[in-house]
Structure formats: structure tokens, C-alpha cells
Amino acid sequence: MIDEIQRARDAALAVIGSSDDASLDRLSGELLGKKSALAAVKAGLGRLDPDARRTAGQALNEVMAEIAAAIDDRRAQAAAAALAARIAAEQLDLTEARPLQPRGHLHLVTQAWERLEDVFIGLGFTVAEGPEVETDWFNFEALNMGEGHPARGEFDTLFVGRDPSEQAGASGTLLRTHTSPVQIRAMLAQEPPIHIVAPGRVFRRDTPDATHMPVFHQIEGLVVDRGITMADLAGTIEAFTRAFFGEGFTSRLRPSYFPFTEPSAEFDIRRPDGSWLELGGCGMVHPDVLRAGGLDPEEWGGFAFGFGIDRMAVMRHAVADIRDMYVNDIRFIEQF
Ligand code: PHE
User: Fold this and answer.
1) Residue 306: CB within 6 Å of ligand 1?
2) Last residue of a domain, which of 58, 90, 122?
3) What SS3 class is residue 302?
4) I need a surface site. Which of 54, 205, 316, 330 has the fewest CB within 10 A?
5) How far, in Å, from the CA of 163 to the mean position of ligand 1?
6) Ligand 1 atom 9, closest CA
7) Is the pLDDT confidence value at 17 over 90?
8) Which residues have CB under 8 Å from 158's CB, separation 6+?
9) DSSP states of 78-115 as a string?
10) Are residues 301 and 169 in the same domain?
């Protein structure tokens, strides 16, 4: 009987050793269950005399425990192997992921544009936009520069109409010479309080040189609310200066003239080394401009500012010739 138990044990261990995870549950029934060889041996124990029955019974228990342990081991082994196989199958070789083409990046003017938006959004502004092809009314008339206003001469305008009659009057079309027409569009589009910045492309009939391009970029700011004063304007310019340029930079306003603001100012940035940089124009929104925007100047007041984006990029990266930014020579562009 002991021999029989040993044979059943050897046979069982051999089967277990070569079985896979899926068949282990079935095997445990076959090797230890009621219909197993060992169960048959157990049934025969009763026929033995007490001494032999005890020895054989003990051997039988040990073998059954051994087989159960072998099944557990095999199951753990199979699980570990399955996990290892899954890990191997899901492994990513990151050194293999080589881009087929070099990665590009945003143009340096776009970088400046987006940083400006970020800073103004941080100060509580939302971003607005207007069309690049504008009417004379939005670009000039509504901004207190009616036909014949001498300030029009400062904007070398590119007209879109084909013959001069299409250019005349408030409905004439042109390429906007500044982002200020977005002030009017914002006032007509929404009720105050208004806090917008409007970055965008602007156009002037200029011959390109190291500091001028006929196409360039500006960002406009407009705040309209009750009780707005020049202190709000100065404080906003100062907060922007610190947020955009960093601690150690401050700003100042210098009296100036724009038809669409009264009073008007230029604003300068003081660098940590004490030097000054002229940045842009600003002022309190002129009552005529508020009226053109459908607002009662007795009730509402506001300030506006505007400055060039290209110049920010030029300064930041010490670009010697502004034209370099637009000839799209990759050897230049990829440096920034
Ligand atoms: N639009 C003016 C320019 O192009 C700048 C400006 C904007 C001035 C807003 C005052 C207020 O020069």
C-alpha cells in the first residue's frame, strides 16, 4: 500500500510539474478529489490492520498535503510567469521613439504674444479680437479721428478699396493701422464693466528697415467701468510691468497726445540698470469714443493702452534687425 501511495505521489507531481495555470483547478480535483487514485487508496485503508492502517494513513495524509502544496507552488509559478510575460509584452522601448522630423516651436513673436496674454489674464483681463480688414469708421472715425483729422497722417494707411471713391468716407475699407478699433467693437459687443486685451496684427504703409515692418503686432487694453481714474491706468501699467518684466522694473507715464484718449500719455519702463524704454501709448478713453461705443460718458469712464508686440520680442532676444524675424530663415528662427 505504501508503494501504491508513492507511485500515486510520483505520478501526481509529474503531472503538476508539466501543467499550466488553466488546468490546475481541474488537476486538484483529479489528484485529490473523491475519484482520485489516492481516494481509492484511502477507501482501502479499512481493510488493513490497525498498525499498517496508521502508517499508511499517515503516509497518505503527508502525500496529499505534498500534492496540494505542489499545486499551490505551480499556480504561483504560473502566475509569476504570466505577469512576466505581460510586462515583457507591454514594455515600451522609449529609446526607440525617435521623431521622424525635428520638432518645431512657436515663433518668437507668438511666444511674446502668448506671454502677454498670460500676464493680462492673470491681471483679470479677457482676450478679445477684431478683424484685420477694418472700416474707416472703426479704425478712425469712431476713435475721434474724422475725415481730415491731422492725426490720420501719422498712420500710413493701406486701403483695400480698388479706387479712391471706395476709400473715402466712414464705410471705406482698410487694413487696420492699430488695434484700437477693437476698443469700439468691445464696447458695442458687451455691457461694462469691460476688461479686455486685444492682441493682433496691424498694417502700415512703411518701407521695411531694421526697426520697421509694414506688418507688425500690437496689444490693446481697454477698461471701462464707473469711477475709473488715471490712477487705475497708472496702477495697471505698473502691475503689468512687474508681472511681465519682473521685480526691479517700474513704469512711468509721460504726457502725450492721442485723439482717442484725453488726457493721453506715453508709458516707459525703467530697467533695473536705470535706463528707460519707451513702450506704448495710453490714456483715459475720450468721451467721443465712449459715445461711439454706445456708452454715456457721464456714467462710464475708462482707460486704454496699446503697444507693439514685435518690439518686446526684439528686446527680449536682442534681435538686431526686425526683418530677420520675418524672412523665415530657419537658422535664425530656431534659435529662439
Ligand atoms: N493706438 C495707438 C498707436 O497705435 C496706441 C494707443 C492705444 C494709445 C490706446 C492710446 C490708447 O499708436
Assistant:
1) yes
2) 90
3) strand
4) 330
5) 29
6) 305
7) no
8) 174, 175, 203, 204, 205, 214
9) HHHHHHHHHHHHH---GGG---SS------HHHHHHHH
10) yes
Would you mind telling me the total number of residues written for the chain in this entry?
336
Cα 14 to the chain's mean position, in Å? 61
Does the CB atom of residue 308 touch ligand 1 within 6 A? Answer: no
Closest ligand 1 atom number to CA of residue 280:
5
Residues of the domain holding 29: 2-90
> Which pLDDT value is given to residue 78?
85
Which ligand 1 atom is at minimum distance from the Cα of 222?
9
**pTM of the predicted protein model:** 0.70
CA distance 295 to 142: 12
283 within ligand 1 shell (Cβ under 6 A): yes
Helix (H) or strand (E) holding 125: none
23 and 122 in a single domain? The answer is no
What does 166-207 look like in DSSP terms, one character per residue? HHSSTT-EEE-SSSTHHHHHHHHHSPSPEEEEEEEEEE----
Q: Are residues 17 and 132 in the same domain?
A: no
Give the atom of ligand 1 at the shortest distance from the alpha carbon of 264.
10
Cα of 282 from ligand 1 centre, angstroms: 6
Statement to judge: residues 85 and 127 lie in one domain: no
Whether residue 239 contacts residue 221, with contact meaning beta carbons closer than 8 Å, is answered with: no
Q: Is 305 in the pocket of ligand 1 (CB under 6 A)?
A: yes
* Residues 220 and 325 grouped into a single domain: yes
For ligand 1, say whether the CB of 155 is within 6 Å of any of its atoms.
no
Check whether residue 15 and residue 164 sit in a common domain: no
| Average pLDDT of the segment spanning 237-243 | 96
118 and 46 assigned to the same domain: no
Q: List residues bridging with 174 in a β-sheet.
A: 134, 159
Distance from residue 204's CA to the centre of ligand 1 (Å): 14
Residue 22 has pLDDT above 80, yes or no: no
